[in-house]
Amino acid sequence: MNEAIFKRCEDMIKQGSSSFYHAFRGLPSPRREAVYVIYAFCRIIDDSVDEPERSPYTIDELRSLFLNLEQAEGHFVWPALRWLFDHFPHLDQGPFLRQMDGQLKDLSLTHYETMEQLEEYCYLVAGTVGEMLLPVLHENSTDRIVASGIALGKGMQIVNIIRDVGEDRGRQRRYLPRELMERFNYSEQDWENGLVNDAFIAMLNELRAQAMNWFRQGLEEMDTYPPASGFAVELASSFYAAILQSVERNGYDVYSKRAFVTDEDKLHMLGNVLHRYPMLGDMSSYTAVS
Hints:
The chain is mostly helical and 290 residues long.
């Protein structure tokens, strides 16, 4: 495939998620390019709902074109996806379609009532990404390994939800389930006012515990991955878990402060993860985490 197309996919992941980019850029080809293509398409799906003014397609148009992928034209993502499915024949269209279903939920369900609803959403928008990546990263995905990939995706989505409480409130979306808010005596008015109190902190810590539990489940199968893939997944997970530490350092003020992981922290985590993968040898290219 045209290298310029891969470069455009790479640019999307570099601009959209430095954590993902720096975690996966050390993969061997064609796994690396496949991750870039998957990220680019997921980004376009997300933008079609969250930022339609910058999206080349509506989500209905994306679904229609994706279901007729061989004929789809007009954007670099279509030849990129055709390459992806040609090179990874075990990849299934199902997770991509379920990802679109999850993003569509943002148009109809804006205030969550139950943890069950939230978990379903986390699966649809992020667990599905685990399902997309596994045929690319792993050579023999069993049901147990697929379940671990889904768990990692759900854990990462909970991190996103914690980090973006304020941003989502600005979009009139409340992913904090009402049943959780009631359990911790945190009211709808408190959420609207952006109140950070002991109840709010306890509620976020409950969600944090759920995220960390899913991370633990997701990392249980790392020894079955090819080393470069396992390293990339572990590094991405470390970067995401560190966002929770940043939230804590910010005093849990996710309404007015953006939690992020510093380049120095990323380098420290890289060294810790790399220590568990000595078989990878020289990974000096990763030292430019910025």
